Amino acid sequence: QQEKLLGRLFGQEGPRGGAAWEDALVRSAWLKGVHSMLQHQPALHLLCSTGSMDVIFTLQGDPSLFVASAASQLLVHMLTFSLEPETCKALSTKDCDWPVCAQMIVKHIQESLQSGSASRIEQSLKLLSSLFGSCFGSCYAAWTEVLWLDIAKQIESFLLQETVQAQPVLASLLLNVARSPVFCGTEGSFWALVTSALEHLTPVQACPLAVGLLKLCKCPQDVRIQALTVLLQPMDCILRAASQPLECAGLLDESVSDPVTVQSLLSSKTSCAGLLCQTLAHLEKLLSLKNLRVDLPCVSLLRSLMTILQICSGSLSPASPLGSTISRNLINCFRVQKSALDVLATLSEKKDCHTLLGSVFDVLLAYLQSPNTNPTVLKKTFQATSKWLVYLQELSSSNSQWQQTEKILEDVFVVLQKRLCSPCWEVRDSSLEFLTAMVKCLKDQKEFRQCLLSSEVLRLTENLLEDPESYVRASAVTAVGHLALVTCFAPESPVVGNQYNKEVSIVAKLQEILSTDSEGFPRRAVISIFTKWLREGCTGQLEDTEQFVSKVIQTVECDLDWEVRLGGLELVEVFCSQTICQLAQCPYAPVSSAVTSSTPQKELLQVFCRAKLFGFLFGSLCDCDKPVGQRACDVLVGLRGHFYPTSTLENPQEIEDTPAGRGIAWLQRTLRQGSLAQNFTMDGGVEVDFQDPESMMLALGAIDLLELHDELNKSSDHVEESPQSLLQDILAAVGTIEDNEVDCY
């Protein structure tokens, strides 16, 4: 069977000999078939002894990108697989012991690199890049080093040839070679080649290489500094072009490549924004790294970012000819604004930027106040502002800069009030998100609370609970929920009577949204806020919390949105955990932990039954949306672990000896069928009483919740999509003739 299959796969009588070969899917499937057979050495030998290798080489240039990529990956796999037995030997590509398959592939690579054909050169460079990118282990070091030394001179020549249009692939290849274990040392011709690449590649081509080098642990320090210089050149050019003579220094002392190249790109309308967006994206990633092995000039970089943002908004008009050209290219360029604001937000985490704090907020407030700020840019501005406000808070607490903090917060709340009334729903939505972010970070700051309570923000936010746009209503719910932690539930909140009335009003309003809003987003937001309040102990004494949870459960169990029902189960889980801890006087015990025998189990069960928890939990086990059933089962398993901590479970065979047991036995059978009715009534009219503590204690011990848990977590496609099932489907569709049986084998 194997021999016949190999013959059909590789021979001319196979699919590549017919008209079907014109279909890219057939060519791709053939490559996958060859790939899957490479685990057998006989298949590899047969493949190399037929004309199939030439077919694979040809498919590298297939017009279908999927086929071309599959062909390249197949050649990489063939080369590594054929050399596996030889990995510990010092090989030469001209060694007669070099495997035949490897010799064929290397010869093809060398011929392609020397062919003068741009497409063939690019195909081989991509293959080499994939090869070095996949050979990270030290076992590959011997033959990958030999291979690199064999092609290094040719690669170097490509860097100096303007006629070769494969520079982006060259950058990728060099980076993958740099990552391989062969070049762990800091000396050698390879790093000189990398330096040459940084000098000769265009800024757009060199930037990805530079960023990759900066992330490497083993990169020589001089190469790392050169890579950083390449990356910062556009930012340096912007800063110098916008500054008056002698006004401020740039980011760099000297350039790696000719600065005229960068100036030319920034002077072009078509390339200016692209180059800056690429540079800014790379900078954002680098700034997020914790162990960057080179110092970034954060202050100068921050100054450059503010310059870019001011040029884009039109608030800065550089006097130099280059600056004026760049200004015309960047005015109202939303792409660059968003990228610059992302980097600006990341820079807030750098502690040495405090000298420019006032200037940063001047730029941010100008964007927040301007009616010309695009909604998506405004959203990014809000995000950056919230980050810098946190930095301002930390700085104020250590430097006593209270007046500056208060003035900035006042300005922020003034503009926030206007933005909450915007006719654009995206602006209202991002304004609410910004408010929520501020409350999360600054709610403990005295100046923030004062500015908040003295503004109109609270009233405007509550008004937006009735916004016509559901996204805005959802964001308003979240904002109101977090604001309540400051205005209602905080110990230092205002007068007790007003505080209580406000609390009741907010809870009632959110419960109304949960039960009546026609859209799912606001209802999801409500259940999330209720859960947060419960976690933070904002719902009063146990009796009040019990009534609160019971009312929420009765609302969400009928909700058509499965995420709302899932949120209700999360609320129940938090309530169970807190109630167990409260009654057991165990402040940190999770719901699934076994507690001491002194725990008042009867009182716990009574609380859970009065809150109607069990009806919701057992009903959710049969929910048509699997995540709901899984979460309900998790909660019930946790509860059983509490009430039966030492495996003292009831025998399911004995539960029918009592009236309650007959109901539980029916419940267990029904749960297995996954079709629990809403009225929970068994055949014959006997009801399962989910509010009876003894029945629920019996149910937790008798029902095999672990078996249910396994069933709920088992994917249905383990049967329908098994290999055997798929092959049976194929045979059923095309018939069981001998050739089809061979293919399926």
TrEMBL record:
GO terms for biological process: cell population proliferation; DNA damage response. Keywords: Cytoplasm. Its main location: cytoplasm. Gene3D superfamilies: Leucine-rich Repeat Variant (1.25.10.10). The keyword Cytoplasm applies. Transmembrane segments: none annotated. It comes from the Eukaryota. Signal peptide: none annotated. It is found in: Cytoplasm. This is BRAT1 protein. It comes from Thryothorus ludovicianus (Carolina wren).
